[in-house]
Structures are given as C-alpha cells and as structure tokens.
User: Fold these one by one.
Assistant:
Number 1:
Amino acid sequence: MLKSFGELKAKVLAAGQKKVIALASAADEASLEAIRDAQQALGVECLFIGDNDSIIAMAEKVGLDIKSDNIIHTNSHQQAAELAVGLVRDGKADVLMKGQLPTGTLLKAVVDKDRGIRTGGLMSHVAVLESPSYHKLMFITDGGMVTGPNLEQKQAILDNCVTFAAGLGYNMPKVAVLAAVETVNDKMPETVDAGRLAEMNRAGEIGGGIIEGPLSFDLAISAESAKIKGFTSQVAGDSDIFLAPDIATGNILSKALIYLGGAKMAGCVLGAAAPIILVSRGASAEEKMLSILLAMAV
Amino acid sequence: MLKSFGELKAKVLAAGQKKVIALASAADEASLEAIRDAQQALGVECLFIGDNDSIIAMAEKVGLDIKSDNIIHTNSHQQAAELAVGLVRDGKADVLMKGQLPTGTLLKAVVDKDRGIRTGGLMSHVAVLESPSYHKLMFITDGGMVTGPNLEQKQAILDNCVTFAAGLGYNMPKVAVLAAVETVNDKMPETVDAGRLAEMNRAGEIGGGIIEGPLSFDLAISAESAKIKGFTSQVAGDSDIFLAPDIATGNILSKALIYLGGAKMAGCVLGAAAPIILVSRGASAEEKMLSILLAMAV
C-alpha cells in the first residue's frame, strides 16, 4: 500500500533503476517540461522522436538540455509513433510516452500486429489519485480506454490493474467494484457484474486481490459509512482499486476528485509490453510528471 | 443562480412561508433531529405519522417538542406511508418525508393510481451540492431514482430538474450533459444522447435552460480547462445542472464530492405533486436538514 506520490517517489529513487522513455512527436511543450522535471527529480532518460529542429527549439524554450544523440528525426507523426514503439519493442526504452500527436496515431502503432507492443490482452487505463481526504493512493480504472466493458472485459481491466499494482508492491490490493448501491439489482446491470466479480474472487477464479462488489462509493472509502449501514467487509472504507462500471463513470469520478476535490493524478495505459503515458490535453505539467513517476515505478 | 445553501436559507426566511412536512414512520432519530433543527432555523411545521408512543419517546430523546395534535397514530409502515401521502394529496402538507420505513413502501403509496400523488411524469432524484471548490450550487441528476434512462427519460429527468430550479428562481440554468469526452462517439451511447439533447435544445424542442453536451466533467466546471481545450460554450466552466448518463455515475459523482471533496448535499425526489425528501441511511443530520431547506424553498 502506498500512502502518497511522495512515498512512490522515494521508492523509485531507492530502487535507483535508470529508465528510458521514448517520447513520440516530442516537440510538445508540456511533455518536455515534464521530462525536464523528471530528469531533475528522478534521473529519467528520454529519447525524443520527431522533427529535430522543432524539438531543439522547444527544449530550449523550456530549459531542457538534450543530447543530439537522443533525438531521432522524423517529421511524420505516424513514423514518430512507429519509431517510438520500435524502441520499446527492441528494449531500448522502458516507457512509451505520447507527445504532440493524435492518440489514435500512437495507439495504431502500439497495436500493430507485426511491429507493435501488444501482448494480446485488453489494453486499459488506470488513473492513480492522491486525494487529501483519503488515506492512500486510489487506483481508478477504467476512465480512459475501454468504453463499455462487459463482464469479461471488466475482468481483464481488473487483471491489468492488479498486475500493475503488484509491480508497485501491492500483494493483495482491496478492490471495490463500484455501483450506485451495495446490493445486486437486475435493473442495474453494473451491480450484477459487480456481484459476479466478487463471487468469482471468493471462488478463487480471480486472484491477486480481495474483490468486493457491488459497493457504493461511500462504502468503498468510508469506514464510518460502512458502520452506519452495518456493512462488514475487509474492503469497505479501505479500497485501493476502484473498478468503475464504465468509462464515463471512471472519467467523471477522477475529474471530480481532481478539479473539485484537490486530488493529484497520474495516468497510465496498461496491457501492452510497457506502460504508456497518454495524458489528456488539459493535464497539468504536474500530472505529466507524476505519470512519468508512476510508469517508472513499475 | 444560488451560490450556497446559506443564500437558499436567506431566501426561504425572506419568503416567510409556513410549510408543513408530513413525516412517514416518524420514530426515526435522524429525521427528528433534522425536524428539530429545521423548526428552529426555518420555522417549518411537521405532522408525525407513526406509532404514537415511539414518536414521543424518540422526540424526547432528541429534544424535540411535539404537540400531540400533530401526531397521527398508526403502527403499520404501509398505513403511515398512505396517511402521509394522503396529507399531501389533501393539501394539508407541502412536503413528504421518509422516516424509518423502507423506501419502496413509501414510493408505493406515492405512485398509487387512486390515492397517490403522481402527476403522470417520470419521478427522478436531484442532489444539490455545495462544493467548497465551485462557485455555486450544483444540481446533479439522477443518481438516486431512474436506473438506466433512455433519451426520453433523460429529457424527463432534465425537465423535472429545470422546473425545480425555476421554482428556486433560476430563469435559464446552464445544463451540462456529462460524458467521458466532449465529442459524440458511437462507441459511447451516452455521448450520442448528450449530443441529441443539446441539439433539441438548440432547435427549441427543449426549453427552460441552455443545454450543452456531451461535456467532460472538467469542461463542465472549469473555465480554464475549456480555455486549454479551446472549447467555447456558455455552459462550460459555469454549469448549474449536471445530467449524469446513469444512476451509477450520478450517485458516485455526488458521493465523491461529499465524502472526499468536502461538499454538503441536499436531496429531493421530483416529479410528484410535492417534493419528497428521501435521504439515505448514511446521510448526516445536516444533509437531512438541508434537504428540508431545499424542499421548503420550492
């Protein structure tokens, strides 16, 4: 269990492993700022793929020192995506990061059958949040990739997240499968899926964590609420992973906590051969930097 | 537009109208506490339906003074529900409130064809939130009644909420139809509905407010995020009403803001002949009291 991004950072620094990021279409101000900060704070290395002159100009603007050996020139987004993915595939980079190119262009290179870095499973998004009102990091999934997951896809999303958490040192994360209520109700299909996932977990069909569901959000995070409602569970009030019923719920939940709840966020795409940093246009430099930290920690 | 519950309270006090609440199965500690506080702060009156002795005992416990004329004795939840609904139907009470009885029992009496208080339209829930990080009250709907609304039901939910807001003095509330993204995408049916609602609004088919959608949550509440994303809209960054794609999203959003975002909430069921106060078991006395305030304000 990790209490904060500060604890995560200490862990990364203690491990002392040098990680390399491949930044696709690197002439992107916010990305270069994040790389600059991550170099200083974490000693990360970066390979910059994109238009040579634009990268150098943008790097100068944000005060980032780039060795010319670390730039791989191309002026096509598609080629930048393919080259960056190739670096990860060939073991020359540990993390793939999206710069100034459309998300679809990067993902197309990622999922390419012959030259991509898919592992065969479903790719999903995790948002790791540090809320000033919760006692540890929250892993919210999936508010960014899989639009309307069915039961099997929810299992895959969960599996990606549990595996990811294991890489961060979580032995047995507590998983809340979120819904509006804590009872299975046929009129709310998400409660049926949630009940099924919890059942499969109890039967040993899904491992790696303790799964409880359906759980209302208050039960997932508040021990007091669980007490008032007479709900006894190892997960209630102490959840690590929050499985959202769909992309809208996961996305809105994360953004509510960030924009109105003072939470900090790091985001990562899971399920490929390496973590992929794919932050939204509205993301702050801090979010980009924390996302690099997260990807480095695995 | 209302900035806070404080402003709402001032409005209610200024109006000086005496409102009467019918409390079904009134021997409920938290409800009686809320009535006690609402009597002191707002001068509300209450009719208590339920077991006479239990009500008197519980009222003494919480320090609430009850005139014996205001108690209507019954020891059946079903009868308490029917009597309370009857008081509203006959104009003897302005607001219906759930005490210590199952929600289903109360709603059954509400929707009874002959003796209920349905008006024919869809009944829906609104959660009104005061977040310390947002500049005005947020109306989130529907996280409590309608499980998986289709387009027509979303329109009815919106209509209930706009009518309710009009009763609070909103001439032209700004409505954000929430989704994960701000573009219509067939893979996310909620974005299709959202786009359709906004279209119908522009075509004059839905009135009473300015509807924008789909909107991601950050665009709905943050003018800065709208600026970064180059999104121009009257609603973005200044939404009053937040239409959730489904009950899970609405419920989880409200609870995230309450439990981790320091927000205060009042809840109300709309679409019947009178507002219905139907707070959850986990609700604080403050939430119950604010819900009374909200119901009185209309």
Note: The radius of gyration of chain A is 20 Å.
Number 2:
Amino acid sequence: MLSAEDNALLTATSRGTAMGDLLRRFWVPFLLSDEVPKPDCPPIRTRLMNEALVAFRDTSGRVGLLAERCAHRRASLFFGRNEENGLRCIYHGWKYDVDGQCVDMPSEPATSNYRDKVRQTSYPTVEAGGVVWAYLGPAEQTPAMPDFSWLHLPLSHVHVTKRLERTNWVQGLEGGIDSAHSNFLHATVDGFRRTPAWLERAQAATDLRARYHALDRSPVFLPEDTDYGLRVGARRDIGEGTHYWRFTHWMMPFYNLFKQGSAKPGVNSQGIAWTPIDDHSCWTIVVTWNDERPLSGEDIEAAEDFAGPALPDSFLPVRNMENDYMIDRELQVNGTFSGIPGTQAQDMAVQESMGSIVARFEEHLGTSDAAIIRMRRRLIRQARALADGADAPLASRDGSVYRVRFGETLVQEGEELDAAARERLCTPA
Amino acid sequence: MLSAEDNALLTATSRGTAMGDLLRRFWVPFLLSDEVPKPDCPPIRTRLMNEALVAFRDTSGRVGLLAERCAHRRASLFFGRNEENGLRCIYHGWKYDVDGQCVDMPSEPATSNYRDKVRQTSYPTVEAGGVVWAYLGPAEQTPAMPDFSWLHLPLSHVHVTKRLERTNWVQGLEGGIDSAHSNFLHATVDGFRRTPAWLERAQAATDLRARYHALDRSPVFLPEDTDYGLRVGARRDIGEGTHYWRFTHWMMPFYNLFKQGSAKPGVNSQGIAWTPIDDHSCWTIVVTWNDERPLSGEDIEAAEDFAGPALPDSFLPVRNMENDYMIDRELQVNGTFSGIPGTQAQDMAVQESMGSIVARFEEHLGTSDAAIIRMRRRLIRQARALADGADAPLASRDGSVYRVRFGETLVQEGEELDAAARERLCTPA
Amino acid sequence: MLSAEDNALLTATSRGTAMGDLLRRFWVPFLLSDEVPKPDCPPIRTRLMNEALVAFRDTSGRVGLLAERCAHRRASLFFGRNEENGLRCIYHGWKYDVDGQCVDMPSEPATSNYRDKVRQTSYPTVEAGGVVWAYLGPAEQTPAMPDFSWLHLPLSHVHVTKRLERTNWVQGLEGGIDSAHSNFLHATVDGFRRTPAWLERAQAATDLRARYHALDRSPVFLPEDTDYGLRVGARRDIGEGTHYWRFTHWMMPFYNLFKQGSAKPGVNSQGIAWTPIDDHSCWTIVVTWNDERPLSGEDIEAAEDFAGPALPDSFLPVRNMENDYMIDRELQVNGTFSGIPGTQAQDMAVQESMGSIVARFEEHLGTSDAAIIRMRRRLIRQARALADGADAPLASRDGSVYRVRFGETLVQEGEELDAAARERLCTPA
C-alpha cells in the first residue's frame, strides 16, 4: 500500500516531475528499427513521457527524434517531407536536421540569419539490437547505454515485439516483477489443481522451472538491492528437503529479465522494457535472444505467440480491453485458469483492468508482493534524491552494471546459498 | 426552478453525498435474474451509484455483489473464475464468497492467517420478481423491501425490461411522474388535433383513460405527500360538469406506478424503477404484471414494444441519441406527434436531450409541473435531514407503505372527492 | 509569439468573454440556405460561439434561430415540430415563433397568461447569397451587414461550400491570411524546386499570380490597418528590377478575400469566412462568385475540388485528422509538396495538426508572419476596448467599409506604389 501522494509521484512521467526527471536520466527504447526501415522513409508519430514527438531516418541513416510540432507555427512535422538529411515542414518549408538545427528556411529572405537561430527540440538516439533508444535528459548528463548482451549480438539472434499497453509504465513493470502470478494467471486449470496427469508430465520435464515452479505456489521472496535495481530470489519448497531457487531481475528504470538467460547455454533468454508513453500508457517491448545461435523460425513464432497478434499497422493487441481480451468462459472452466488465450494478453487483462493508474492506496499486499514493495520504495527514493540535487543512480552512468543473467538452482536442506553465491549465480560467465 | 446548488445535491449519487447516502438506505433493483442465469455462470460487470461492481451467482444459487477490483492488487474480478461458492481472481487466485470474505489465498503460505483478515467490499442482495436487488448502505440499517404485489406473484405473471438511459436518475423519474406530457409526446397528430374521427374513436373506448385523457390537456394536478412519497391526482374537465380523476404515484426513492393496477381487475399494471448507475446514467426497469393471471404472449409483446428493442447483448436501445432516436420527420407531420416510434424511445429522446444533468436553474415551470416540484423538494429535504442525523424515511423501514394502486374515477360537479376518498381509491382491496 | 493570457483572450468565444462579446457585435454566416430548404422543413441543430442552437424555416419562409433547449423543461427543440409559423416542443407542446415568443402552451390552462411571459432565447437572422447569417449580440446594437458584392448577385453567380474545421476560428483565419504558405503547402514538388520545365510553364501563363507568385518565396509583407481590418500587400522580386505586388484582405472579424476579384473582369473571386462554432471548431465557409456572369459547371467543380468531398449528410471532410488527411507518401516524394490531395485538406492538415488551440506562446514567428501578428494585436486591442466600454469597431456599424477587392500589379524599380495607389488598387470600380 502506498499513499495517494506517493502513488502520484511514482507514476508521473512529464518533464519537471520527480519521476519524469529520473526517467529522463536513462536511455529509453521506443522504436523498432523496422518502423523507419530506410533512409528518407516517412516519419513516425510517437510519444515519450508525455512529449509529442516525430521520429525519422535521415538520408545518412541516422534516426532523428524531434518535438512533433514545428518551431515556427506548430504544424505537425508528422506530415513533413523527409528529404536530404532533414525533415521539412509542409507548411512553410522549414527544414530541420536530426540535431534539430534549422537548415533551411525558404519563407524568409535569403539574407536573413534567422534560420541559424531556430532550433527544433530534438533528442539524441542510439540504434542497437533492432531497437532505437532515445535520451530526453540534459545533454551534459548523457547516460551510458545499459550493457545488455543482446545489444552486441547479430540481429539474427534477437527478436523484438512491441505492444501498446494502456496503463502507466510502473503498473506494467510490477506485473513483470511479480513472479508469483505465473502459477495462477498463466496456469492451466489442471496445473492449478495439480492433477495426477499434470504432476506426471511436470516431473518428466528436463527444465527446472517446468518441473518445480508450480509445486509451491507461495514461494518465499528475497528481493535484494543491487546497483542495477533488484535481484529477486524466489525459494520454492519442492519436497524432500529440497529448495528450488530462481532469480529474476529488475533493472533501472523499467527492465525485467525473467527467463532462462545465459545460465542455460542454448536456451533463449527473454526480457521486457516498459517504456512510458505518457502517464496512462506504455510500450511493452519484449526482447527474445539467444547468445549463442540465430533464432529459429520456431523461436520467433513462440515469441510472437507470447506477445499475441496486433491489429494491422498498429501495436494495439487484437485481444484488448474493448473486447475483454476475448475471454473464453468455456475455456476458463477446464482449460486455462484465465480463459484468455496468450501470455501477454493475460498480463494486459489484469494490469489494464486495474485502471490506467491503479489506486495503490487501496491494495492489500501479501508476502508475495515483497519485490514490488521494494521496487516502489527504491524508485521513489531515487526520484526524490535526484529532485533534491543528488546524482543520478549509478545505473544511469555505468552500463556495465546491467551485465546479469537469470539464475536458478536446487539447494538441499542445510546447504547455504549466501549473498556471494546468489550473486555468482546471476553473473554471466 | 432549482438553484444550481440544490440541483447538484439532488443529482449526486456517490457515497458520502447527501442524496447518495439517502439512496443507500433503500434496496435498489439492478440486475435481471436472467443476467446470471445459473449457478457458477460468468460474472457480470455492473455499476451502482458510481461504484464499480461485479455480480455473480454462486454454486448455491445466491447472487453475490462485490466491488469490481480485487482487494489484493485491484485486478478486475469480472475476469474471475466463478467456482465452488466463490469468485476467484485470475491474477493470484484469491477467492471471495458472496459475503466478501476471502476464503482462499493460495499465493500466501498455508500457515498465514492473512486470508481471514481480508474482505472484499460486498453488498447483500435479494432476488424477487425476476429481479436482483442490492443494498449499499450501512449493515445495521438494512431496510425493508418495498412490498410490491408483483414480488409475491409467480414469475409467469410478471415481465421486466431493462434499458440504459444516459441521464441522471432524477431526470428519468421526473419524466415518469410528469403525466402532463402524454397528451403531447405520446400522442398521435390526430389525437393532438382532436379530429372528429379521433374523437369518435375515443368516445367508443371502454377504458376511461382512452376515453377522457386527451380531452383536457391542461389538467389540474394535486400532488399529496404520503409515507411512500407522493400520490399525484390529475383532474380533467371532460365536459358536462364531469371531472375525470386519475391517480399515479411516486414511491421513494425512484419508483413510478402509473398504469391500471389492481383498480381494474384483469388489466395489467405497470411501474418503473429508475436505478442510478452513476450521476449521468440510470437503468430504466419497467415491470409489467397482472395480479390475477399469467401474462399472455400479447401482453409481453406489448411490454417489449413499450421498451423498444435493445442492441444485441446490451441494454442500450436501438433508438438512441447517436441516431437521434431514428426520428421520422415524415411520420411526425401527420402520424405521431413526436415522429419517434416507441413510447420509451420518446421518453428517452426528450430526457436525454436535456443533457445528462438538466440545468434545472434554467427552467420555466408551469402548473403541470406541480408534482415534479414537490418531489424535488421532498427528496432534497429528506437527504438534508439524513445528513443532519435524522432517521431514514419511514419508507426505508416499513415496506408495507408501498401497498398502493393506480386509481381513477369520474366525479360529477358538486360531488366531493376528499382526502379519505382519494386514499381509498389508491388502496388495494 | 503571444502570451498564454493573450492567447486565451484571443480564442475564447463564449458570451461574456472579451473576444466572444466582440464577435457578437457582427453578423455571422453559419447556415446554407439549402440546409433548411423549404418552409416547415425539419429543424437543424447548430452551435455558434459555444451556444447550442436550433435553426428552422417557418411557414412564411423566415429562418428562426433559437436556443436549442426549450425554456420549459429543456428538452431539445431539435426534435420539435416545425408547424404554422413556429417550432413546437414535442414534450409538452409549447410553441415558439422565430422571435422566440411562446405562442402556444397547451399544457397550461387556457385562462393562463403564462404563455405571454415565456420567451425562448432567439437571435435575428438575415438570408443573403444562399447563406443565413445570425446576430447574437445586444438588440439595440444590431450591426450593419457587410456589404459584400456577392450578396447582391443572383444566386447563379455564387457558389458556397461549408466544411467543419476542428480548430479555433482564429487558427483557420491565420491560415487564410498567411499567403506565404502557398508556395510550399499548396505547391508541386517541381514548383518548389523550380525545375526548368516548371519555369517554362509558369512564364507562359497569362495570369500574373501563376507567372510570378512562386518566383520569390520570401516576399516582403506590408500589412496596413484599414476600417475593415487589414490590407495585406506582398511584394515579390521577380527579377530585372520588377516587383509583383499582390493585395489580399482580412475583414473583421473573420473574413479573407484572397483571390482574383473584380480587379480581373470575368475571373472568379473567392473569399472565406471562419465562423466560430465553439472554442475548438469553426465552419470554413468558402464563397466563390463572379460579379459579371453565372458560374459554369466547371467553376462549381473547381470550387468543390478546392473544398474537397465531405462525408454523406455531414460537413466533415472525407480527408480528415482521423485518416491523416489520406496523405500519400509516394505522391509527396515527387508529386505535390504535401502529399495531401486538395487545397483545403492541405490547409486543414496543418491547422488542425497544431491542436485545436495552438500554443502561440511556443511559436517562432518570421517576417512572413507580419500580417498575422498585426491581426492578432488588432483583434485583442478591439476586444479589450469593447470590454472597457468603447464602441464596437466601425466595421460593425458601417457595412460599406467591406467594399474592397483583391488587387495586384507590377511595379518597376524606382516607381512609387504609395498608400493612395494601394488603396485605389483595392477599390472596386
């Protein structure tokens, strides 16, 4: 439970708010490279932390990110002409380069130097892993990029999906951190009931998670502060004096790493970014990668199934709030616990159904919410500190802190799994 | 005419407002039994007096009414699993019974007693006459059910329609009380003009209303305060020294009884409840019944014609504000006065066209509005009294005051129709 | 650039605001005569300066304009019966004539004189040139009609189009005054690039504008205050010591005269009114006329092409913000500068894309905006003066000041084009 005041602080994304300013000290992924597929292609309207923007790829291949409305008379540059290393407003022909500099102003006398004085608000971008990242903070504080392994891989090893979620970004992130729900929301009815047939299938699995995850639905959570955010251990009692430990991560400000990872050579990894569009919506960007080999067609299909189909020329899921996520009440009775087909659709259903900004002051949190509680406190504390003049968090300055991996292990009763061991488990080879 | 301040008081339905709290001292009908047709069927999203709710029928057949969002992390229980005498949230599997008690909390350790401490906001319900009623007020003040005769009848004698009206409930109610408009809004053009052919047909009718109602379009209204609300007499001068008296009723807080009733054995009765959904919309629930015999197919058809068709899987009328109630301007010239087909569509057209909360401070009321004026004053007075610490009105505590009937009679000049006679006329045998 | 405060003053249209009251001192065109094609036809819902209204043509052919909601209980008179020189409310049959006088009140006793005391808010109208004009200001200050030549012509010489623009009226007007944008927004790519083929075609044109307009894209603007508003000269350097001068006009409060006009016998004229619907939308009413002859089918087709098609039974353009004005990115590359087909669609695209009230405090104006700056100042000054008790502007009282025409001429270096000459050029013969 959070006070209404803290809830407002936690969820505000605009420039000048404490959290909005904290978010602006990080690079944020927002655009698929494919959305601006080639030089001089049409510009794209977008929105980040409540700022209306337009993105375009210039003749040299650089991605520009400008305030949507022209500095002159505020016509939308979305309608602009993307030509010769600049975006030209169709109203009076003013043209800006990727740095926002006005480079042509044909409606003013040729002798005028007004052009040199006019700058369109612009933000630097970086392109990596098939994704474009932007930085909306002060130029003199430009942060390091998070050093994710998938940013160094060939694009064949990486698959990215992007969906529109109509909730505040923290709400999405909380869903990502909350590993307690997978035994319910994402379960089958048989799994929830642990029928004999289901148990037999589970025990035959080679994957530890498949084998043990559902055996204990009320694990002990151990969230630990780290430089990058939180390492979240979940300890499950799987019987016969054995504990199954599983470690996922929250990385500042809005990343989850939740699946496999380099702990299991040859198995795909998965993580999510919840990028704030405005206070009431975010991009859910899911990255699937394999550090060792290209993704197969099957891998990509699985990643797309996870995200679920989107409407044509849109990132809005086909299953969405307007159609109650196509919940199938028959399926819900004996098929899947939720009755909603698709993992991400299930997540969206519960997260969006809370309202776009959940009333955290009306919650009744349990022990399973330990990581969420700790993350909220950390975010609020860091936003307040920054507003009070402190430095940005280390994660904003040192991308190397992001070099972590998913971890899991079995521990017998009496064995120790101390902090050093936990950290080792989550450190890539 | 009402001050803007009184208008705001009259129309506010939220908990903590004077009128919202008065409304919460009565049982309110809101759900057709058919909407939750059988045990463990899918839950229904609903809304009463600005509270988001979910209704479900449990394994034992009881109808539960819970706050829509789960006490835990506020996911919508609309997506919940309706199973084994409780509604289970699909997020973490918390389960609540019809009393709101958390009866299962599988995401917490088995040893935890947290489950016993968590209650979901819940409201008691009663099912009668094919309708589910809820009580949203303080438990220690649970009111009596209004003792309508149709609540005691076999369901074969009763037919209920439910439509969404996009106005504040008082606005609907005022339309129901306002018996002056039927000579215009619901008239034919011939009836309005009283053409010879129309007059001849009227005089041949056995029904008093059909014979006399339109002969005098500016009746004298006599609204009288009663324990249940108002008895509204309308005296029409029908010529040759004869008065036609007709009595309808407003019953606290939002019922109209306006048609036939047990005064005429064998003839159907009709009444309306205007149940507040929020400040800007209400359910128009029309009950047609016959105290003596099952309704015929024709009776039911007439009741459905009165309500007009609704969109599929919806209570929104096919004729609605978006399509100007399909007004037919040709029909309006020489057919019906309004040009809008259907009684209830005609009512909705005028009521919704005022805006969802009519600016009562800009009205110019006439003598025909006497009952409306009196009802507003009564509602405001009682809401203020309750807020000041007085008891709820008697009608909230004693359901027997609702035992009234529609009445009508002819009175010759010189004859008396004193208060006692008027009351007798409206008392069921 | 304008302060946020001045921007709010400039764009507020409601009664009681400084600008709303200034606007209410002029006749405003708002309805095509065709919308109420014949006596006793169905009434039309409309809205002017944020007032909800209903217009109807009575039995005598007069156009009435009443407040939308009935004085009695505020049902919409849009559903009213238009009969025998009055509009009758369908709720209780109250009937009003074009002057707003209640002329029948059948729900009240025949002996009542209440009818005589009730007046529906009504506004006088004038019908001219196929257009209906309304006056919403104080009766004792009824203004003169602007003496446009087209108001005196046979209807065969005039063609009027009306479109819904979802911006504040000033924003539309600024687009109309801004003659600098036509070399960009309305240009072809070849014209913008001045390719040899394009130059050759331009030089072959007999029309001065076609020949010279695009040769100098950064003309010198000379806006001059006049009794009617502004005379806006644009001087283009077309080489060899020659200047091409072109004069357009802003006429109080929201008219542009921008094309041809009586300076060129036989050639059509064109002007626009931007009539405020509310703060966020306006009617764009374009009048095409020929002072000397009936318009041909070709003329009318050109006028309709200029406006672009509207949706059926609507004034909303087919190309609109919801579909990004059907911008064609292929066309934009080498065809037309904007990629949007249609002159008025191009204007709407840029004007609406600024948001319904542009943030004028975030602009960077250039020398090409001189006329816009001067118009804003003039409007604000006059609104403030009126609020401070000054008389309405002369243009409100003397329609003859509107007798101006479009003007253009060539001036050789060294020749004078003094104020008297400029005025002569813009005075009809």
Note: Chain A touches chain C through 24 residues (CB under 8 Å).
